[in-house]
Amino acid sequence: MAILPIHVLGSGVLREQAANVREFDDDLRKLVADMYETMDTALGVGLAANQVGVARRIAVIDADGHRFAMINPRITSRGTSTVGAEEGCLSIPDLFGEVTRPEQVSFEAQDEHGKTFSLELTGLAARAVQHEIDHLDGILFIDYLSPLKRQFAVRKWKRELDGEGLTYLPSPEESEAAG
Ligand code: ZN
Questions:
Q1: 43 alpha carbon to ligand 1 midpoint, in Å?
Q2: How far is CA 149 from CA 93, 138, 154, 174, 177, in A?
Q3: Rounded-to-integer distance, Cα 101 and Cα 81, Å
Q4: CB neighbours (10 Å) of residue 151?
Q5: Which SS3 state, helix, strand or coil, does residue 12 take?
Q6: Is 132 designated active site?
Q7: How many other CB atoms sit within 10 Å of the CB of residue 68?
Q8: How many angstroms separate the alpha carbon of residue 48 from the centre of ligand 1?
Q9: Which helix (H) or strand (E) holds 126?
Q10: Which of 18, 29, 114, 139 is 20 to 30 A distant from 146 in Cα terms?
Q11: Contact 46, 63 (CB under 8 A)
């Protein structure tokens, strides 16, 4: 297994619409294993393939005791009640903002062997699933902030990042819970 470099805001792949996975082969399973290792090293609650430079519909989740890979995930229903919570992202380190999302979601996906499964989740796990599926559609949590807040946050973040490049290798010492 290997820890993969994580792409940060400004890297084009974060805005790409990820393509469906058709081949469930050893290459896919290796990528999933590497994504687990990368997420764990970064102490993340989720990681989407776009974040490691691969625009394919693959994400891993580890939130509230729910640990799984989801390939070609599709939300099948959203709860009617919404909840706001502070969100962060491994691709925008040190930036946090409140995002309102449905509290409960059901989704369908395939595992790394191509087997279809479905889950109904609430709380942090439901939030992580929505955050990661957004990544696969090129959407970032900052897109939900008000334009003013977003502008302010991104400027601050860019100043801090200045000159550090568009990827980084995660290490547990420098991480906070994010996806
Ligand atoms: Zn993220």
A1: 12
A2: 16, 20, 8, 25, 21
A3: 8
A4: 12
A5: helix
A6: yes
A7: 16
A8: 7
A9: helix 123-136
A10: 18
A11: yes
- The answer on pLDDT for 128 being more than 80 is yes
94: phi > 0 → left, psi -120 to 50 → alpha, else beta; which?
A: left
pLDDT at 176: 61
Q: Which helix (H) or strand (E) holds 120?
A: strand 116-122
Q: Which of 16, 86, 112, 132 is catalytic?
A: 132
Ligand 1 centroid to residue 75 C-alpha, Å: 17
CA of 44 to the centre of ligand 1 (A): 9
Taking the mean position of all CA atoms in its chain, how far away is CA 109? 15
For residue 154, the CA-to-ligand 1 centroid distance in Å is: 15
Predicted pLDDT of residue 154: 83
Would the pTM of this model clear 0.70, i.e. be above it?
yes
